[in-house]
Design a protein that fits this description.
Length: about 190
């Protein structure tokens, strides 16, 4: 549940409170027409009411990750298809941009943990091919995280793909060297 005043300020911070709330009312009217039964708006608050037709992927993701079993974690990983609201930009809404950047980082961290747990479950069960699939996603999600590369190299070696493990080592070295160069202050 969100307070209308917060939403109005988030999206129309350059407008008066009255004008921002008016804009929000129009948007909410349009949304409730498009998504009947999915939003409950009172004079002061707005709440999302999930249904079979209208659901929020982050809520389902969170629910799945609390189960800590391979099928649930795999389903959660399948829901994650990239950064939250990737490509969304709102003119003159720096507060929204700040909020979105923080949320995107938070969900990347959640996904990183899901991938790490999924990999471990499959690895411990001796299912290296499945763990390799998730390890490759972990490296793609977080290429500067040495731990993700180490896991991928280990799984490649365990599955008998020694040359691929060595190639991944070289890739990891290059990425980490590039990161150190990029982070090094200029003199």
């Amino acid at each position: 549940m969100e307070h209308r005043s917060h939403l109005a300020d988030l999206f129309w911070q350059d407008k008066s409170e009255r004008r921002g709330r008016g804009n929000l009312s129009r948007v909410l009217h349009n949304l409730t027409s498009l998504l009947p039964g999915c939003l409950v708006a009172t004079r002061d608050t707005v709440a999302w009411m999930p249904t079979d037709e209208c659901w929020v992927d982050t809520a389902v993701f969170t629910s799945l990750t609390t189960r800590h079993d391979a099928p649930s974690l795999m389903a959660a990983a399948d829901l994650y298809r990239g950064d939250l609201m990737a490509g969304l930009y709102l003119d003159d809404c720096p507060e929204f941009e700040t909020w979105l950047a923080a949320e995107q980082e938070l969900w990347r961290q959640h996904m990183s943990l899901v991938l790490e747990q999924t990999i471990s479950l499959h690895r411990d069960a001796g299912n290296y091919q499945e763990s390799l699939r998730y390890a490759a996603r972990w490296v793609a999600l977080d290429p500067w995280r040495e731990e993700s590369h180490r896991m991928l190299m280990l799984l490649l070696a365990l599955s008998g793909q020694r040359s691929a493990a060595l190639k991944q080592y070289a890739t990891c070295q290059r990425i980490l060297a590039d990161e150190r160069t990029w982070r090094r202050p200029k003199r």
